[in-house]
Amino acid sequence: MRKHDVVYILRSNCRPDELRYSLRSIEANMDHGKVWFYCGQPAGLIPDEAVPMEQIGASKWERVRSSLIEVCRNDKITKKFWLFNDDFYVLSPMTSTKALHRGLLQDHILDIQTRHRGPSAYSNMLRQCKDQLQQAGCTTLDYALHIPMLIDREKMMDALDMFPRCPMFRSLYGNYAGIGGEFHRDVKTINPDKEIPEDADFFSTSNKAFAGSVRKQLDERFPDPCKYEVEYGETVRS
Known about the structure:
Largest sheet: 5 strands, mixed
Helix content: 25-40%
CATH architecture: Alpha-Beta Complex
Order of helices and strands: EHEEHEEEHHEHHEEEHEE
Strand content: 15-25%
Number of domains: 1
CATH class: Alpha Beta
CATH topology: Spore Coat Polysaccharide Biosynthesis Protein SpsA, Chain A
Shape: globular
Distance between the termini: 21 Å
Number of strands: 12
């Protein structure tokens, strides 16, 4: 598998704990190129490349979008790159770049509205994304399943230009670029007592869940510092 760069878009106040285990997981299970941090850089962690920038926008989605545009403009990043969050973990060796989705956006919208007993801000954003994609004649699959996503810089930029007010950029990109893919369940947990399945390929956690037994489980899986961590004032490099 070709080595694609890994990009994290981080808040300026991002804490290092979750990100530390994410980095350990990609070093253990993923053949990758450079690791890039955009915006934030938590203490004790040093990527291959760091790009400090101020995110622009009134909402979380607008701020991430402003950073993503700069990522796509950076021709030093590989043409295709893996987009990560700081709480994404790769738990088994990655041998494929095949796209993954969790079914139709409409089904996810209905599920959320059932759980919340009506529309919510999140379900409204999902519906906005679905409606815009439908109007453009695109598929309407849900790619926001908390798993690393392989992004083509040029195609993502085209999608962001075409849909300047669509907040769900993973589903926006996946459908506009027509990447297709296979079904995969959503791997994110908000349960602090969640047992990570032994055969899990990916995992993602909320801050609350990470503070529970999940952190101990990740430490048991990835006990050793990776090359992006600082030990005793120096970066660990293999």
